[in-house]
Write a structure and sequence with these properties.
The chain has 246 residues and is of the alpha+beta class. Among the domains are: 12-41; 47-111, Nucleic acid-binding proteins (OB fold (Dihydrolipoamide Acetyltransferase, E2P), Beta Barrel), CATH 2.40.50.140. The chain is built from one helix and five strands. The longest helix has 27 residues, at 14-40.
Amino acid sequence: MTMTARTPLPPLPAAALTNIESELAPLLRKTSAATRQAEASPASVQGITIATVVASHSDDSHDVRVSSATGAPHPLPCRRAASCLLVPAPGDTVMVAGASDDALYLIAVIAQADPGHATLAVGGELTLRSTGALALQSDTAVHTRAPEWQLNAERARCKVDTLDYQGAEVRFSVLVSRFVGRACEVVLDRLHLLTRSSFRLTEEVEQVRAGQIDMQASSTLRLHAKNTLVTSKELVKVDAEQIHMG
């Protein structure tokens, strides 16, 4: 094998170097300016990218921070998309999309900073529609709060172990009402009962304790028992046109 030594190239004349530097100077200045601009202001968001919520001004207005490959992270305002029902919170990892930094939309919440708390919010009326059964389930509690609550159903079933109701007024308008229970306790200040016909059956003992009892019948008043006792500490008065005894 024969080795051939490479002859070094002769140095360029000083005039030629000067001409090359003068021709490359504008290109170097443009490249340096573009690099400084990219470092000063990161690239705009285009398409879909991942961001972090840094501030929340309302349910629909948030500030997000996008990590740019050409510069430092920068906060950008964005609006929550209509399809994203979950309200973002500071610290959440979200997905944003838009044509420019001035028109960004938060389209999804990927990970929550606090998974134990979530809020679903809509701007107007919300309708949940299902062709099958709809179930709401919670391991702790279900709270509802509204100025007005309406329920329309052909049949309703309510199974509650303990019911504690507090309110100012209750009104029932029904055709037939049936109550079946083991015990009933009612504590009232006043009781008004108006009926066309009343029937009450007590198999064992019925007791009435009152400061004053006034019973009046327009036709007939009948008291019948195996043993009837009428006692008074001061006065017993029987007044009628006819009195039959025996």
